[in-house]
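From the pipeline queue, job 12 of 40. The input is one protein chain; the requested action is below.

Action: predict structure.
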Amino acid sequence: MCPGHRGGLVGEAAGGLPRLRRLLADGRAAEALSLIDLLLDEDKPSDSTADLLLRRLSALVSLGRRREYAGALDAAAEAVAADPDPERHGRLNALAAIIAHLDNSLERCVAHLVKSGRAMNAVTRVDEDVAGSWHDLASAYSMAGFHGRAMSAVEVARRVAVTAGIPESDYVNPAIRVRLAVWYDHHGDTDACQRILHDVLADLPWHGQSIGGGLDDVRPIYRGSYGYAIARLTTLGESTGLDPWPLLESAGQSLRARDLRLLGNVCWHIAAKQATTALALLDQGSIAPATMGAAEPYRLRALAHLAAGNYPEALAADRRTFRVATAQEERLRDLLVDGTAARLDHENMQRTVARYQGEALTDPLTGLPNRRHLEEYVNSLVGGGHSAVLGVCDLDGFKAVNTVHGHLAGDAVLQRVAAVLARVMRRGDFVARYGGDEFVVVLPGASQLEAREVAHRVVRAVAAEDWAALVPGTPVAITVGWAEATSPQSIAEAFAAADHAMLRRKAS
């Protein structure tokens, strides 16, 4: 997370903010969270509320309190929704990308990264909040494995800081380069890993000197990364003459700081040829993939076996390292294919609803006709002497999506379902969002047999979507109920009958 976001309107909210900034910069997220909640309780809803809620979300992510992510993300998103400031939207989406990555949803993560990048590129002012939001975006890119983009974003953060008169050392973020270094090691380029780690350590103000007296010059939230760079080099036979433990021990109490201390301890035992202890620590500990990549524990396992002379086990662990490290690349290829399909679905949907682009007739989230236009369409159709079969489509499992992943993920599900419905409908059929998680399809002149065939297509198409990639652990399905409208007087009855048919199917 960024080192405090020290500027902005929230600075006027309460005298407790200077302490809040220091707590965040020192990695004391639990204390910062308590102070934020106090400020939110004391402060009436105002322009500063969005800033406080964004900081609260950042603190929860630092603490690894995953059960609270969805509610905190929804609260921050609601506060930011009407805010015209693109910086806040950039910060929100950077944090949402980190949460999606921790949720193992690469698709949502990439979508939020794109939104964050676009928002930040629209920012024209230069201040500490802007530097901090670029810093958050760089962290999100890095955790998700987009290292080139992470390096570019952190460089923008540094330039903004310099222009705003802020010490650029506040935005150096060594974690990004340490993750890049171990990424190279996971892919077999140990030389590049060593070069980058040495380059990271060259930034330390006391490099080549004793740690005593110099530690205060290093921000606490960065100390863990510097300490791990030292410890990691020792596993590769590179002695720096520096002690990593003062850095690791003073890195704060965030989830990441705890992970780095555990990984640093493993590295120490590997360098000391105490492979059994190193392997036991890896077996007993749980390391978040976002800390140093999902492959890092496997690579350390390989180095432990190598240090003990267990070469077959070292080779097997290294192979596992490479498989884990390259798994995301395969997922990205799948995401490219799925993204292309989604784009084609969207283009098809846009063509389908192009004549309903009036704001009053279009649902802003999905781009489909809204309830008002649906009712006008059915009245016009049936009033002209035509019959139609109405289908009420209700999502199964949608409440769990909102509860587990938050309403931003729920919006992504609704957009996906809208695209699926537009794709599977026949030419001349009408699709609308009725409200909430309900959609309505209208089949002019169709028979009940044709309606059942359409229902089968809809159910199969929704079931075939990769919900595990978008909202892991909360599968989505759809139930459809049908009824026929043959006269203007029967329209209300047909809607009610279709809704009842859907509920009966859902209960069966």
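Job complete. The CA atoms of residues 206 and 214 lie 6 Å apart.
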